Amino acid sequence: MIHSAIPQPINAHPAAAGNPDIWELRLYVAGRSPKSVAAFANLKKLCDEHLPGRYTIEVIDLVQHPQLAAGDEIVAIPTLVRKLPEPLRKIVGDLRNTERTLVGLQLRPRPGEKG
Amino acid sequence: MTEPNIGERESRGLPKAPSGIAGLDELTGGGLPRGRPTLVCGGAGCGKTLLAMEFLVRGATEHNEPGVFMAFEETAAELAQNVRSLGFDLEELGRQKKLAIDFVRIERQEIEEAGEYDLEGLFVRLGYAIDTIGAKRVVLDTIETLFGGLSNTAILRSELRRLFRWLKDRGITAVVTGERGEGTLTRQGLEEYVSDCVIVLDHRVTNQVSTRLLRIVKYRGTRHGSNEYPFLIDEHGISVLPITSLGLQHEASDERIGTGIPRLDVMLGGKGYFRGTSVLVSGTAGAGKSSVAAHFADAAGQRGERCLYLAFEESPSQILRNMRSIGIDLDRWARKGLLRFHATRATLYGLEMHLATIHKLVRDFEPRVVIIDPITSLLQAGTQHDATAMLTRLIDYLKLQRITAFMTSLTSGDAALEKTAADISSLVDTWLLLRGVELGGERNRAMYVLKSRGMAHSNQLREFRLTDHGVELLDVYLGPEGVLTGSARISQEARERDAILAREQEADRKLRERARKREALEARIAAMRKEFEADEEEAVSIAEQEQTKEELLQQDREEMARSRRADDAEAPANPDRIPVNGIPAGRA
Fold first, then answer.
1. CB-CB under 8 Å, B115 with A97
2. Which of A84, B2, B32, B431 has most Cβ atoms within 10 angstroms of its Cβ?
3. Choosing among A67, A79, A92, which should be mutated to test the B contact, i.e. which has the most B CBs within 10 A?
4. pTM exceeding 0.90
5. What is the rounded distance in angstroms from the CA atom of residue B183 to the CA atom of residue B45?
6. Alpha helix (H) residue ranges in A1-115
């Protein structure tokens, strides 16, 4: 439902929706703040590295669409939401800590965990 | 309700937003600081959320100030359900765009922190909700939940500081709730950020009795009551009762009201109690305290005044039945709405709660007379010190409202009669004492006025009788054996009557004797007088005889002279012829 509400999502990779291999990511930002800009740049770099060609990033600017904040329970900004694959994951911050971002996206096991 | 100490005169200073919560606005001199955040903190289940919600609902419905409730712990549906019992319909208010509820859910498990962030998302959501309904009030309940969901406390702290400033800049009157921490008001020290007004709620259980308490810890720019005030949560929401010792500022009334017992009126200077004073009746079990109370309630009904009867030991129907048996019909006043009973066990809840309940009843019912039967039961709901303090406040409050308070106090058999269990004797204005008198194998009742301020009152003991037409006061027999009542009094009275009769007969007898004596005396006097008269008559007759004798003698002499043909010396025929030596010349 959120897709339809977004007039112009900033898409990094136009990928086919509904593809189970495609990671659906959503980045909530507030305007063009330094943290928001940094978060998008960090995310893009990370996805290109770990999920080449298998992801979509939808950027939602809450300054323009404040009504969308409640949908994904957004409190902190920036917040990255992994809509797919399930389960839903949230990573808050400008994603400068790549390790933690990867752990948050479950692309890397939590330190101390096996896998 | 007015409270002179914490007046509304300060409302001119800081602008206030009326909370609409009964009692809280009086306590704060008009409400919460307008355009500023207020911190409401306390332990779990102390009523924070309810207070915050009522603040919003009252604002929306009574002060035309829509509000946003940002919930961190309960969903909108849960909240709506929780406050429905207080008569708040959140769904309807939501439809009318007067209230918006935003539930913010933060799950630690699904959140990873990777780098710098801020809480702009929260700001956006709140700002959006505020703008949508034009909110003037905001509740954040409980914002500390954020600390459970996010780990960077440095960021959270600075963001909270920013949030409160942001709310202030928007002119929002906010209520922020916080959970009580160890040694601090809130777990995260929210009190550091909210500097204008801090309210602490408490839910205390002492001796298995719970009391809700509210205390204003801080209110910048406003003089406020700093005590703990009990509050109630009932079907009309929260009511805070600013009840402390209200001081002695009540006006004394000169108006007198009847006690319902004519003879007792006479004992109290002929007119009864002063209006707006406190009356205490103390006595042992079965002394007739409740009957005196019932008479007073009956008298109030006859004056057309409302009377509130707080019964702590008997049910209303029991009281009505018992009073019917002594000829006092209280049903009619109950039916007319002039008499209201409130019967609870004293141990049902704490003293503060009792006080709060009584306040609420008085406020709702507006009685002129309040009967508390008995106050000693309240002792069971707290310590003696607490009970005394509570009763002091109650008496002061009632006096301020010019309500006449009538209390009964049960004295246990072995305690000194002139000592009330709760030691409130110095607080009461009129103290009637009922005592049992055991004599001659029966127990009777006696009553006297131990004190009655501001009136000349009888210092005499009266026999107190419960008859089928109510209480009767009779003179008692006072004699060398002490006070006599009941049959002892009756027999003593009979003895006295006999004695009086005997004395009367004796007096009669003496009177008759005297009469007889007088008669005898008079008879003697009469006899003597007769004797005297006889003497007198005799004396007169002797004198007469003497005279007669003399006259006869004279006659004899004259006749003798005549017979000696003496030309009487007394008729000289020739003046030249002067007799010499008494012998007429012619004869010589």
1. yes
2. B32
3. A92
4. no
5. 18
6. 2-5, 34-50, 98-104
